[in-house]
Amino acid sequence: MKKIRSLMLVVLSLVVLFSLAACGSSKTNSEKAGKGATAENGIQELTIKIAHVVAENTPKHQGALKMKEVIEAESGGKIKVQIYPNSSLFGDKDEYQNLVANNVQFILPDMMKLVGNDEGFNMESMPFIFEDDAQSIAFWDGEKGKEIFHRLEKDGVLGLVMWPNGGKHITNNVRPIKSPKDLAGLKLRTQGGQLLESMYEELGAGSATIPFGELYTALQQGTVDGQENTLSNIQSKKFDEVQKYMTIMNHTRVDYVLLTNTKFWNGLNNETKAIVQKGIDEGTEVAREFAIKLNDQALEKIKENGNTEIYVLSEAEIAEFKKALEPVYNEYKEKIGADIIEAAEGK
Ligand code: LMR
């Protein structure tokens, strides 16, 4: 009997102990919910850095400004967004590795600066493949474009969406470029990558990779004779002050991919991620809308400044360049993949 009583006592104390423990854990859960921002719920308090290399009066910066405005407003100030233009935080040489290290949360590199990470980004410079922003946007928003973005996941980087800038045009200080032979002997700066190097080699010119932040000085000091870029990049960085000739060619493009750090992105809870995504969507809309507008305005300003003689290639002259660049096109069609090229060409 004594044994049974002590057994019952043990069982009773165990029941009391268990129910106390249960109360304690439910209190902890409700305390958590009351705290607001945790990894699971509530808007997380964050400072997000966006770094890029171009000036303020560009589609990239205007899109970034919209991202900042939307994210800060929608989060009631809990998320702060700092934008660093003009290579003021990181430049061409170090922005990618600093994204991988999560020292910056968003960068928007010209895709040619990613060809060392994946050959598919050469698409941007396939000669004369994209006629306008709409064709390029359709490709990068499509299945094949996204497939190329996803290849950066091996670095812990997420490719989110493409922002356009526009077609590139050649400027130089030696002579007007009207046909492939006019490039013979010139040295041009490129954004980098074997494709652009081969392209100029095919046209009898030399090339050098120079970071965007050092380009004005390189042109001014004659380190290179010229370069290829969009009108808004040329005008916002005042390259027309130090370049005598410009040929409107549209032979290659500047397009960007918005990149983020995968760990940073996965660390956002659903509520926070939805706010950041809204900022990205609206920023993308602004960048896409401003690209054409800013390039058109830049052309007018370059004309007004009057330092640079402007030549527009005729259809026949474009055909001559296309023919001269056929070997590069064929080589890279094989390297990038015919299925990808055909998707871009709408075949
Ligand atoms: C350049 O280096 O010429 C451009 O890629 C800069 C940019 O980001 O538009």
Summarize the structure.
By secondary structure, the chain is an alpha/beta fold. The protein has helices at 2-35, 59-74, 95-100, 133-141, 143-150, 194-202, 215-220, 231-236, 262-266, 270-305, 315-324, 326-336, 338-344; strands at 46-51, 79-84, 106-107, 157-167, 169-172, 187-190, 206-209, 226-229, 245-248, 253-261, 309-312.
Helix content: 40-55%
Annotation field: number of helices: 13
H/E series, N to C?
A: HEHEHEHHEEEHEHEHEEHHEHHH
The CATH architecture assignment of the largest domain turns out to be: 3-Layer(aba) Sandwich
Would you identify the CATH H-level superfamily of the largest domain? Bacterial extracellular solute-binding protein, family 7
Task: Give the end-to-end Cα distance, rounded to a whole number of Å.
Answer: 91 Å
Give a quick account of the main beta sheet: strands, pairing sense, barrel closure: 6 strands, mixed
Ligands present: (2S)-2-hydroxybutanedioic acid
What is the CATH fold-level name of the largest domain?
D-Maltodextrin-Binding Protein, domain 2
Mean pLDDT: 91
Read across the widest sheet, the strand sequence of neighbours is 7-6-8-5-9-11
The strand count comes to 11
Q: Structural class, from secondary structure content?
A: alpha/beta
CATH class category of the largest domain: Alpha Beta
